[in-house]
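Just scan my protein:

. . .
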Amino acid sequence: MRSFYTLSIWILLGTFAGYGLLTLVGLGHKNEYSSRAFNFEKSASSVVNIWSLRRWREWQEKTPSLGLRRWKQVIKTGFFPDGSGVIFDDDGHVITNLHVLNNSIKLKQKLLVEFYDGSNHEVEIVGIDRDNDLAVLKLVEKTVNISPIQRKRKIEDINVGETVYAIGNPQGLGQSVSMGIISAIGRKFINKEGSFIQTDASINPGNSGGALVDSNGNLLGVINFIESTTGGNQGLNFAIPIDVVSESYSKILKETKR
């Protein structure tokens, strides 16, 4: 009987000890996850939506006269979503893809950027880098409060399989974030200059020029294009690496100061 009680006590002690250990491990994982939780608002405040003011001709019905319907041609204006951009420094420079601005450059359209808080501000084109499909904009207004993106990492520090987030303005619906992983590094294409970061984070038209960031909000690259047969996201999404973006940014600013 004594051995039975002794065994029972040892079983109870073992059960409590195991439960305590599992609890500590669980708390450890929870704290680790919490410390690495992605702060969307912090990164989102550094990403802007790019809009262009477009003018177009349209036929409009006039008030019927004597029962006859008449039409006249009018010129209308409106803002259209072109893509996304990233606030790159304290001077109000914004980096984006050149192809996001191609139509605006061709038609000499006015450009606005929309901040995360919904405010809109006019920007002008500082310079372009055709080889890398990049361009730099600058806020016209000098007193705007801005939040430049963090960009501490280099391509050598990026690991395949790590979690990343894509922030931009897909389909012109407004700023949003999608999560994925780094699928590959150093992807090359015959018809494109340089190499690219591949990610399966969901990207759609309008994300171009937006930010691909890590869990700490550091910019890893600027979203550039989708490899797709339908034009929509199929998990084959590519970004220009931060090293190339930083080099292009410095080159453009240097050329404008000549």
Q: What stands out?
A: The helical segments are 2-35, 40-44, 98-107, 242-256.
